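User: I'm new to structure prediction. If I give you an amino acid sequence, what do you actually give back? Let's try with this one:
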Amino acid sequence: MGDSSWVLAGAGHAALLASACHGAGRSLTRGRSAHADEDVYRRAVEKLHVVTPLDPDAPHVRRRRDILAKYHQRMKEEAPYAYKPITPVVRSVEEAGIARRVARLWPLVTVKG
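Assistant: Good question. You get back a string of structure tokens that encode the predicted 3D arrangement of the chain. For your 113 residues, that looks like this:
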């Protein structure tokens, strides 16, 4: 959520089932990322446009601290700091001859839920 992604063109290696990795993986478990410092969390998501079934800014939701706490816990689990950077992984895939970079994409919006 929030990081760039890459479109890759595979080299078609039969031994690799003509496939490559689909992500870099998590750097923090969901449990550890859910307990991240509030300032770290706020800085990580303040520039993101995240769409969820729940609008945390709706007046009837803002009064429900229990619902907001669960919402922010789930958002923390998926925050950018919870994942490894993708570019080093893509670089190693490219250097290994598995695939080549075609385009880098930056998210305009993230939809969760």
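You can read the tokens as a compact description of the fold. Here is one thing that stands out. Strands lie at 5-10, 50-51, 99-105, 110-111.
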